[in-house]
Amino acid sequence: MHGVVLTKLKAFVEKNFDENTWQAILVEADMPDAVFVPIRMYPDEQLGAIAAAAVKLSGMPPNELLESFGRFLAPHLKEMYAALIPKSWRTEELLLHVEDTIHRVVRMKNPGAEPPRLQFTSLGDGELQLDYTSKRRMEALARGIMIGIAEGYDEALDITESPLPDGGTRMHIRVSSAA
Fold first, then answer.
1. For 44, 75, 97, 135, which has the most beta carbons within 10 A of its beta carbon?
2. Is 117:132 a contact under the CB 8 Å cutoff?
3. How far is Cα 114 from Cα 148, in angstroms, rounded to an integer?
4. Pairing relationship of beta strands 117-124 and 169-177 according to DSSP bridges
């Protein structure tokens, strides 16, 4: 897991709860002295342990917590990769090109990085299909990131999901004006 995700998770917890909650989560996850650096890679298991501890201590359902975090994370990711995102793009264009722009760069700059495989297909008229594949199974985080991106463009997403035979998830996404 990329360190920027873990450092933003800390910021998310501190914003929505407090600094003591972050420390309690690290203790619960058996990592009381953990410090995360944005430019490093960390084992996926650490995010899993922290997420499980956050769910336990917050009482929030796992998917709700991950989606909420994704919405929080989206503007930070968009800012981080702003040089790769043409100003003319909106939600639909950004989502359609995330694999060949952002994820391509992530994989090049961080050997061993395994962002989810996001296979978007345009269905026309503001509709997209996403086949999400990742061993992490964090569809709720991806959903939250997409919603957060749309919110940044003053757009809204309607998302329905169904399982894929290989264990991934297919999402049908409708992009519309938030107004």
1. 97
2. yes
3. 22
4. unpaired
> How far, in Å, CA of 96 to CA of 53, rounded?
33
pTM for this one? 0.90
Tokens at 9, concatenated:
């998770």
Strand partners, 107: none
Number of residues in the chain: 179
CA dihedral 44, 110, 113, 35 (to 10 degrees): 10
| Per-residue H/E/C for 93-134 | HHHHHCHHHHHHHHHHHCCCCCCCEEEEEEEECCEEEEEEEC
* 127-133 and 117-124 strand pairing: antiparallel
Residue type, 130: L
Residue listed under structure tokens 């359609």: 96
Under 8 Å between Cβ of 110 and 40? no
Rounded CA separation 174/179 (Å): 15
Over residues 128-142, the pLDDT tens digits come to 999 998 887 889 999
